[in-house]
Design brief:
The chain has 364 residues and is an alpha+beta fold. It has two domains: 20-161, no CATH class; 167-355. Helix content is 52%, strand content 17%. The chain contains eleven helices and nine strands. It has helices spanning 2-13, 41-47, 60-65, 67-77, 163-184, 186-198, 202-224, 232-252, 260-283, 288-314, 334-355; strands at residues 21-29, 32-40, 78-81, 90-95, 102-110, 118-123, 134-141, 147-151, 157-161. β7 (134-141) and β8 form a beta hairpin. It is elongated, with a radius of gyration of 30 Å.
Amino acid sequence: MLAALAPLALALGLGVHPDSQSSSRLTVTDGGALLELSMQALSVIECLEIDADGDRVLSQAELERGRAAIGPYLDARYQIDPTGPRSPWTLELVEGAQTGYQLVHALTTFPIARECEELNVRCRLFLEQNPLHRDVATIVWRGEEPAVFLFGEGVELWNFRSASARRGGVLASYFQLGVEHILGGWDHLAFLFALLVAARGLRSLLGVVTAFTAAHSITLALAAFDVVRLPARLVELAIALSIAYVAAEVLLVRRPGARWIEAFAFGLVHGLGFAGFLGESLMHESLKVTALVSFNLGVEVGQLAVVALATLAVVYVPGDRDFRGQRNAWLVPRWLRSVLAWTVLCAGLSWFLERAGWLSWEGA
């Protein structure tokens, strides 16, 4: 608590207003860059001796006389690298009707090389007098979606990279995240094993996996873009029930059949589960479509790898696969089918009870 209040105490001790803030906007085009700063006049007055009459309000005349001090101060305290030389700052006084603070708007332009895709932006505006100062920075890079960053609380440097420069890294990181999520998601793996056990053959397995993939891709996209929203607890309960249902169907319905409809329906539910996991990562990601597609590809590659390995393992397991005179009607032999189905059923029910709050493994 004392550590949190220390900056406020320091600011009050220096006689400055504690809610000091500014905003900056850098617009980059092929022709160069425009930097716009909007600052509270009080913040400028507290750092530069330009308020001649001491009334803590700037007049146009005081602003003009202070131009020689304000320009170099902004150049030193708001630095962007690599860029060319800046044009002289254009300064304007604005009465902040909504904020109640008098504002100073400052504009400058400078060249940026066409091949440049990264910038280091350092903001230390007014920190020497007001450690609580915050700056909300926005960069609009050659028509891309605006990127926003908050300077303050000890953060002075923004290592900005354009979307085109970041895209490769985003693709790789979210693809890896998708693969890891499948390999570490025991409930999704259990559902895939349930689909494998229920399959009549390779063609049947391919059909249900395709249906499952298409369905969870749809709801993953809808939920990630906030088109569909359901309580996470309800989604997790439904996922557990879907696992138990498919396993129970294998045990109760002892004949082979196409189950792509169930796979598609339950895939819609599982997609919402993927979105719940991914939502926090996407919250501050400007390349949402790239991240979403890459994550989904990672999920598909991960689950196809699991299904392929499991299929290779079970096709060589000896046992009866016939059904009413049809040879090899089942992909998995009868005895192994029962063992796996009971295992998946028990896992699905235990997850449901645990997520419902009726079962706890703590202290077990």
